[in-house]
Amino acid sequence: MQGGAGIPRDEHGELHPLLGPIHEQDRGRKCLVLDLDETLVHSSFKMISNADFTVPVEIEGSVHNVYVIKRPGVDEFMRRMGEIYEVVVFTASLSKYADPVLDILDIHQVVRHRLFRESCYNHRGNYVKDLSQLGRDIETSIIIDNSPASYIFHPNNAVPISSWFNDPHDTELTDLCPFLAELAEVEDVRAVLDGGL
User: Fold this and answer.
1) Disulfide engineering: 174 pairs with which of 73, 76, 100, 127, CB 3.0-4.6 Å?
2) Residue 133 — pLDDT band, cuts 50, 70, 90?
3) Are 167 and 118 in contact (CB under 8 A)?
4) How many CA atoms lie within 13 A of 11 on its CB side?
5) Helix (H, G, I), strand (E, B) or coil at 85
6) Annotated catalytic residue: which of 10, 26, 35, 167?
7) pLDDT tens digit sequence for 63-114
8) Segment Disordered: which positions (predicted)?
9) In angstroms, rounded to a whole number, what is the distance separating the alpha carbons of residues 89 and 95?
10) Is 37 annotated as catalytic?
C-alpha cells in the first residue's frame, strides 16, 4: 500500500502522467495537491444563506444551483501556497461542478493543474488520489485532504486536515501556512510526514 500503480501508459505503451510539463515558474518547487470539497470549500444543493457564490450545474438535462461557502482563510492560503509550490487541485468531484467552482475560487490564479474524478483510482469503492501517477517526484509531492481514504497509497505524503462545513471560526488553513512554508524547504517530505500525524 506504500505506492500506487505508477504513471499510466496509453494504448501505445507511452507514459502518460496525469500532469503536464512543469511550468517554467514552478521549476524547483514541490507539488502541493489540494482537495476541494470540505477542505477548501463546502458546497450544497440546498440553499445556504451566507453562500460566497453560486454555480449552476446541469444534471441529467436540468440546471441546479450549487451554493458554495469558502473555508476561512482560503484566499490568503491559496495566494501564499502559489508563491512557493506548484499547486494542483485534485478532487473526486465531477469537472462540470468543480471547474466552475475553481474558476471563481482561484482568484489569484495559482492553480496550475486541475484533476477530477476520472483521474482517481477506484480502490475498494474509494476514490484514491494516486500521487505516483502525477509525473512528479514522490519525495517532493504533498497532498492535503480531509479524507484519509484519498491518500491511502501515500500516507507519508499527506498533511491531514479536518472536514470543514461551515465553522466561521476555523483557522486550519491559516495555521498550516508556516508549516507548509518550512516543508517546502526539506529534501524529502516523507521524512517529516511519516503518516503518524
Assistant:
1) 73
2) very high
3) no
4) 0
5) strand
6) 35
7) 999 999 999 999 999 999 999 999 999 999 999 999 999 999 999 999 999 9
8) 1-20
9) 11
10) yes
